[in-house]
Amino acid sequence: MKDNFAGRLNTAFNSIPADELKIPSVAIILGSGLGSYVSAVEGTVLPFDRIKGFPKTTVEGHKGVYKFGRDILIQAGRFHFYEGYGLDDVVLPVFLMWKLGIKTLVITNASGGVNESYGAGEFILIKDHINLIGTNPLIGSNNKEFGVRFPDMTQAYSKHLREAAREASGSELKEGVYAALTGPSYETPAEIRMLRVIGADMVGMSTVPEVIAANYLGIEVLGISCVTNMAAGILDTPLSHEEVMETTKRVEKDFSALIEKILFRLLKEND
Ligand code: HPA
């Protein structure tokens, strides 16, 4: 992170009327097209553009708001490296959550299915990731107030939370490894074959920087991916953002129901 990051974080934090809001201990980041859960929860909406120093979101399907509910903080929308933001921008929301006192982060995304046993519209628990973005949000001098220089990533996606999520869902949710590339072009079929060989089950363009930041800050992470399409080269059809949006629209209700069950369970644990 850049040397001015702590100052930037303070500025963002100070623009949140934190004393007027009840700050929960669990937060969720809703990924591409998965933002509709935001309307399932009552609370105070704070658009990103009201937070000083926050970048603007540019992608369709990413709303860019926080909602402070009674038990849960929802972030609908996120910043992506491919939009041209630095990783400081990408992880700023996670640092802000940390400063607000968030202990558990549920992070969701849309992904391409590399594992051929997956189907479009399926929800997969992320058990681990492969960072192929080519950089790391923690590069720069280390501020000990945040975390250690060399953060452990052996349980980047908490096993305990995965078990809790599986139990809460009442179904056999599969687990898989998520590989992140920068995008914004989708992968080539050769890249997908490579990803399969190195152990990836899903591919996407987000999540990994935020999860690195969360682990650094001591926030426990649960990752849930919605496989919106089979990855490049598996089917004959070309990939498109429209397909991603169509799938998320189709599974929107199931996604909200799953999130609801999982959050209910996590909140009970935190009581
Ligand atoms: N590749 C990368 N990112 C994605 C995909 C994909 O196939 N689907 C949704 N996000």
Question: TL;DR?
Answer:
Helices cover 31% and strands 22% of the residues. The protein has 271 residues and is of the alpha/beta class.
Structure report:
By secondary structure, the protein is an alpha/beta fold. It has one domain (5-270): 3-Layer(aba) Sandwich (Rossmann fold). The protein contains six helices and nine strands. The protein has helices at residues 5-14, 87-100, 159-169, 189-197, 208-216, 241-270, and strands at 26-30, 43-47, 65-69, 72-76, 104-113, 123-131, 174-180, 202-204, 220-230. A five-stranded mixed β-barrel has the order 5-8-7-6-9. The longest helix has 30 residues, at 241-270. It is globular. The model has no long low-confidence stretch (mean pLDDT 93). Residues 110-112, 186-187, 203-205, 228-229, 231, 239, 244 line the site of hypoxanthine.
Instruction: Give me the CATH superfamily.
Output: Nucleoside phosphorylase domain
Which fold name corresponds to the CATH topology?
Rossmann fold
- Estimate the strand proportion: 15-25%
Q: In CATH's first tier, which class applies?
A: Alpha Beta
What is the total tally of β strands? 9
The assembly state of the depicted protein chains is: single chain
CA-based shape:
globular
Q: Helix-strand pattern, N to C?
A: HEEEEHEEHEHEHEH
Parts with pLDDT < 50 across at least 5 consecutive residues? none
